[in-house]
Specification:
293 residues, 5-stranded mixed β-sheet, Gyrase A, domain 2
């Protein structure tokens, strides 16, 4: 019954998006969220080491992925992606901190779920605790966090205990993910845009544009025009810098491909070039820095 209910809800989610974007029912499957389950790794820890170090973590990841699969969710296998990167520099110790980004980059996942797990042994029985945290792979924004506990039992079958723990919270996790993904589809994802003037430039954001607007105003108009549903927020503006801490971008392009931050940066640079301003750009995650030259 749980699987049936989730399938109906997910189908409804897809219909809502299809209606708003003119997507046919045959294309609905292409807009379902794709999820990859990965181990929790500390900042300087290697993702592969975190996976291989603990048997209970590997078991928990497998059980979470299986639970998603059973409910019709599109999943990506972590082991396959690690193998894909096996011969790259991303797996060397000095590149460990970047491995997570590398794996997520090649996975194509919309959402990733970090899993922490511990096996508890005691005189009154054994149990398993699992923490599942879902993130938007695009922005790194936390979407859902659930702590799952198995019953305490006189058994050494920790695989079964892990399964029971996952089953106790997986539907709650999925429901929250679905709600947040629904919001992303409706309102877009968030990027941060910082537009500044180079130290070498002989002008600032108070300069006039050919149409008589201040350069800062022109930039804001451009951001409004490019933002999904024209939604943005200005965090602050000075003579040399304007920061937009919220700029919404769509989940998909008009042709159904995943929207990339680089597309937004490229469009903004083109608008600046139209009025004679050259610029450089740096993209880190969902942060865009445009520097006017």
């Amino acid at each position: 019954m749980k699987k049936y209910i989730f399938s109906i809800a997910l189908s409804t989610l897809c219909i809502l998006f299809a209606t708003s974007k003119g997507v046919s029912q045959e294309e609905m499957a292409n807009i379902q969220p794709t999820i990859m389950v990965i181990p929790f790794a500390k900042k300087n820890d290697n993702l592969r080491s975190a996976y291989e170090r603990s048997e209970i973590v590997r078991i928990a990841i497998t059980k979470v992925k299986e639970a998603f699969d059973e409910r019709g969710v599109n999943t990506i296998d972590l082991r396959a992606k690690l193998k894909q990167l096996n011969n790259t520099e991303a797996l060397t110790e000095d590149q460990a901190s970047g491995l997570k980004d590398e794996v997520l980059s090649i996975s194509g996942a919309d959402i990733y779920v970090e899993v922490e797990a511990s096996a508890n042994k005691g005189s009154s029985g054994n149990s398993v605790n699992i923490i599942m945290t879902a993130f938007d792979a695009f922005s790194g924004e936390s979407l859902s966090n659930k702590t799952a506990n198995s019953p305490t039992m006189y058994t050494d079958n920790f695989e079964k205990l892990a399964e029971k723990a996952v089953e106790s919270e997986i539907d709650n996790l999925l429901n929250t993910i679905q709600e947040k993904f629904n919001d992303i589809i409706k309102n877009g994802r968030t990027i941060v845009v910082n537009v500044g003037v180079s130290d070498e430039a002989d002008y600032d954001l108070d300069a006039d544009t050919p149409d008589g607007d201040l350069l800062s105003d022109y930039i804001e108009f451009a951001i409004e025009d490019l933002a999904y549903n024209n939604y943005y927020h200005v965090q602050g503006v000075t003579q040399n810098k304007i920061i937009f801490d919220i700029v919404k971008v769509p989940l998909k392009t008009e042709d159904g491909r995943a929207y990339r931050v680089s597309r937004f940066a490229s469009s903004l640079r083109k608008k600046l070039k139209e009025i004679g301003y050259e610029s450089d750009r740096v993209i880190t995650g969902n942060n865009v820095v445009i520097t006017l030259k």
